């Protein structure tokens, strides 16, 4: 039994419940020092009471085990919409006041705490970045458990408790995350203790897991690889006792697992606690004759008419007084010694753990000089490399140099090898705690490449890892990264908000490598073709977003180095894994990436001096190749045409400076693209994105964009660009159609281009391969 | 034991395997009538062998039970990338030839079948819409089981077999879908038989489920509510026998469940089959000294160098001959009687079931005249209604009138009531097979409102329901519909491809009601604010996409009616659930929605005649209110200014006609928006979307768009529009700033507007509510 008295735990719990309800309702009279009157009540009653008493219970009891055991603990509050509960806990443990000194731990501060909650200009209703001790918002449900595992990886001394609501447990990402048990290394990683909180209801419905027969729920959790411990009840004293015992048993078991881990065979069965308490517990039992406590009616605000309905007001007062606030707070509103008896000290407090402010723990990543990995480029466009394989060397170096620190991981849905990043496996393995067979490759209990066929889990793991201060990269099929559209939304929102909080230290950026991209789905076809993630993220806060389309191996190295060194961004890097011409030496690549967009003198015929007749612009590896091939065709067939080639790596450069920190000023844009010449822009993705970025530019009326327009199937690489009118021949025709006077003068050239497209169609029909002249093409020197 | 001999089953299976391998490799010599030479081999070897022999096994044995029992059966092929297997099955059962008469069921047709596979201009490598008998692509993994349940709902006589790969089983959506057992009504719905195919590997890794201890896997499946049946082996004879027995037991159990259902208490334990066979089974055991069969190396093409490597060529020939093709096909390439012995007839064939061509079974939905639900509007902007509640009446009518037909369902993640669609519950309940308690509301075993807290499962269920010919609507929080971004991508791709296949009958549209939208997240704040789904879908094939932003209740009725009657679209309807002014009578609403965009004469001061000085445009309910309030302010303060108000319901009207079938011709656009007057456009979502749609219009340089710019939190409705510069005062200031000559003349008015914003900030800080003048505003008559 705990050294801290159950009565002290109950006092803390009642205090937290009082504070949670107070935040939802009270504008004034925080200590109920006078009878409750309508003017003490907030004009708009917002927030979620239903989940709150369960969260306060967990906060109270985690305090106790932290204090008893000196255990470093981070808690992920899955039901993050129960913001009042977590705010209450952090106010009680002093973290809140330490973070926000004007919200003092006394009556005045309590009044502020109450007033600011869900109040315009105050704090949000959820466990948002503003809440000390949190790395998880919990508005969009589903990611708590993956976040918890991400936080636990490579933190061997850390306990990550994770409260999972039974609503959230119905989501796909959460359901998949249970299998993280097969990826947690008891030697090198911390422990995750899921606390499945079955309060029975979501918004207006019962939850699936709460209505399973006991045996079925038990089978399910054992099937996930857990040993379940059950705590059920509505009598606080019994629940306190049972929950304290369950926590002790769980932590004892974790200690045993970790002690035995270095010599253990097989995968441990980690504990899970099932906490079954009523929704809206300790709130009004009935309102207006309808049952509320322990039903879906307690989800948000159980008493909705308090300002106008005297009976509701009376019920609220009774409810608040039922916590016996005079026993919990002194006359000045300070929590009594009994309430504070179970609270740990300093950075052990849940509200003050540095694991929840990961930037405080971040170390710069050791990145070897790029020279070690760069490919030599004497002449552009003569050699071919697989860009991601070259990147693999860089990542392998980081992996090697973090072997002891263990603060770098690469995640992906089983594509590290197929995305040509296999060099990593010289320095680490793929994390795997389940059974192995002799034919398996690269599996290792302590591996830092993480592969599970769930983009959701990959993303959640990585977010948790980054939010607790470590580094990483997510390599994904370009099309399927849409699976985490909504997750990246939430992470971007978290970063945007965090950047405005001075006490939150910057964390390593979330780095995406999008490869196996739209243009090279030879095996898979239409379902694997979607370049729209860039469009999706560019809707979000520009201060957080960076999008790079390196055209070759060395530029990929340069942007990857930059991304891995950056903080508080989401970096989206789109790069192919197929052999791709090397255009720039490392030095040239660095200079080009630093500018983000620039003229490739050697590729055009305007000598960098003449005003061009036309600009051929490109962004992305395949479009760059087609633009250079088009430029070579123009040089051969229309040698007096002044063609300028512009390559864009950093797509935000196209935006106005007011809309993105990387946006070019107009004069710089005009210097690259001109104000009045035709610009034929070959873009990797949906063509209208370029228009959306550049519509305010002087030359926009002359901008003509080619890109992917949903014309996809299983076919050859060149057929893909032909189908989408992005091919060299079409680009030359575009030039001829748009440069004034050329239509007549170059009509024979135009016909040759049209003929080449016809020849392509005939050849591919007969041979199933690309035209030899395309397959063997190289930049003419 | 089956009436059909196991030897016949084995013959069918070998024939299907032969055909699957042949599709991956052979360009010619389909029957191996001459020794295999390099020129018989495809130049590009594409496809996925690894999963194929498992799929052919399932095809073979499903044929048998269909024939034995006359059981209507649809199969969802989760590993849809194993296209060759399913194509083989449908060619053998004659469905393929019936659908594509030039691919005859003989040697010439076999040659075509082989050549076209993954060949440019041929058929995709996956089980795409082109494949008869399929409703599921299986490229982006995760949705097979939800599709299966969707297909089974309200099809009481149907068996839906669902092959789930162990790779797919790691995904979130699949993991969540297992709990569909709590939503399948054995009386009114069909049966779903999951066949979990553990072949052990995904791309380069073992799979989680295949490496669980037997007891753990068993517990997991029982935890999902299933009774597992196991079939394990690599000896074909034993596996045939065991799988046939397992299928018989499963179907017997299903028959028993359904027979007992009308009087049974509680939820049945449906069978699941676990089929454990080697990946790449019957393919090359080793290649170049490395083990291939039963390892990850057999995932795609086990022998990669066949054209150049004589040893590989020899191995391929041996492999193909190991199926003993001369026993399987006669000299003309026709499958022998033995191969065909187990194949069912007519529409019972898996490749010919009308359930996989759902449009054939679709009936028009009974929709009552809108007059029954419309709100009376004598004068615009004087009464308020909750638009979605009004829509609820319409939907409830449909629900009532389909009580016997049972071909309409409403899905959503537990928000039907909170989204104000509760009228439905007068005519149906929420589907629920688990335990109930007295405080539950509206739960019913035969309910046709489907609520689970997983947007993935909701979407998957609905897709399966629609693809098999029925109707439905998905009501979602606007922000969280991004959770299914990637799923709607795949559904749009399916529809786009299907529309080009004359044999696929049009199916009911996928209708989204996006409510609880960005402007009204009073309880929830920033994490719940994202209007970007419209941007996401508008990247996709325009012929499939329709986006509506009805400004009030009657316009919502009109677009909903249109959406429910349509076919082969994805209709996205964005509409609020909060009280909203009624602007148009039903007749006006119908006329306005038919036009998609139009001038609201009564709201402007240009009398519909004068050339306006400025156009105030709006799309969405909240922007419409702010524009009308701005128009009223302008009328009061600058009465001689000619203001035109334009409302846009159908957002694609803004696009050029060449880019969307609903796009307006330029003259129509100019007639609405003018070519040269300032247009202040208040848009519901991200403002740049409007630019992206309208950048080609003559007046684009004068277009100024206000919308949501990621400035969100928990706050009041009016504070949200102020934070994002979409409020009436800001719009008036925009007008003054942009109409030539007004800056000086109206500087005092501009100051009053700025003062009103300042007053707002002060008021909200002190009161936490909106300015009384805003809260009580109504259109001035």
UniProtKB/TrEMBL annotation, chains A, B:
Domain of life: Bacteria
InterPro entries xref list: Phosphoketolase (IPR023962), THDP-binding (IPR029061), Transketo_C/PFOR_II (IPR009014), Xul5P/Fru6P_PKetolase (IPR005593), Xul5P/Fru6P_PKetolase_C (IPR018969), Xul5P/Fru6P_PKetolase_CS (IPR019790), Xul5P/Fru6P_PKetolase_N (IPR018970), Xul5P/Fru6P_PKetolase_ThDP_BS (IPR019789)
Pfam families from the UniProt entry: XFP, XFP_C, XFP_N
Sequence segments annotated as region (Disordered): 331-357
Cofactors (names): thiamine diphosphate
Keywords associated with the record: Lyase, Thiamine pyrophosphate
Domain (Xylulose 5-phosphate/Fructose 6-phosphate phosphoketolase N-terminal): residue spans on this chain: 5-360
EC numbers, comma separated: 4.1.2.-
GO molecular function: aldehyde-lyase activity; magnesium ion binding
PROSITE patterns: PHOSPHOKETOLASE_1, PHOSPHOKETOLASE_2
Cross-referenced SUPFAM superfamilies: Thiamin diphosphate-binding fold (THDP-binding)
Biological process, per Gene Ontology: carbohydrate metabolic process
Domain Xylulose 5-phosphate/Fructose 6-phosphate phosphoketolase C-terminal, residue spans: 577-779
HAMAP family: Phosphoketolase
Family named by the database record: Belongs to the XFP family.
NCBIfam families: PRK05261.1-2 (NF003617), PRK05261.1-4 (NF003619), PRK05261.1-6 (NF003621)
Descriptive protein name: Probable phosphoketolase
